[in-house]
C-alpha cells in the first residue's frame, strides 16, 4: 500500500486516475496494469497471505484502470467502463477473427489465482514489473522492448507521438506514411531517427 501510494496509484484505498497514461492506447493501459499486478503476485508468490494481498492489489489496479479509461473515453463513470468492457476489461480486435469467426482478444486484466503454493517462486521479468510501477519516468518503448520502426535498432528507443491521425501528411516514404498505414498515433523510434525526424532529415526506404 505504501509503494502504491508513493507511486500515485491509490489514496485511502481508492484508485487514482493515471493522467500520465491517458495518451496510451487502451490495450497498453491494461498491459501496464497487468505488469504491476503480476509483479506483486510473483514477488509474494510464496507468502502465506498472498491470496488476500494479490486480490486486494487486483481490485486497486482495476479501479485505477477503470477510472483512467472513464477519463480517457469520457464515459464519466467506472460502471460504464465495466459495462462496455466487462469485469476484466477485455479488449477485442473486431477486424481479426479466429476460425470460429470470433474476434481476437488483444488485452485483458490479469486476475491472480486464489490457489496457494508456498514453493511457487517466480523470478522472471521482475525488472520489467518494477518499472511499470514508475512508468512516469520510463519510456513505454523501453518497457515493451520495442525496436525502431525505421532502422530496427533497439538502442535508446522512445515513442514518437502525434495528437490526431488527421494531422498526418502520409507521403509515401515518410514516417507519417508508416503511422497512417498502421493507423497509430504513436510509433517507436530510436533516439537517432527521432532526432532526424524533428530536424527534417529522416529518410525512409
Describe this protein's structure.
The chain has helices at 2-6, 26-43, 50-72, 78-85, 126-133, 140-143, 175-182, 191-199, and strands at residues 10-11, 14-15, 91-97, 103-107, 157-161, 186-190. The protein has 205 residues and is an alpha+beta fold. It has two domains: 2-123, no CATH class; 139-205, no CATH class. Residues 125-130 have low confidence and may be disordered.
Largest sheet: 2 strands, antiparallel
Uncertain runs with pLDDT below 50, 5 residues or more?
125-130
Number of domains: 2
Shape: globular
Average pLDDT, all residues: 78
Distance between the termini: 50 Å
Classify the helix fraction into a percent range: 40-55%
- Side-by-side strand order of the widest sheet: 1-2
Strand content range: 5-15%
Write the element-wise H/E pattern from the N-terminal end onward.
Answer: HEEHHHEEHHEHEH
Short synopsis of the structure:
The chain is α+β, with helices and mostly antiparallel strands and 205 residues long. It is 40% helix and 13% strand.
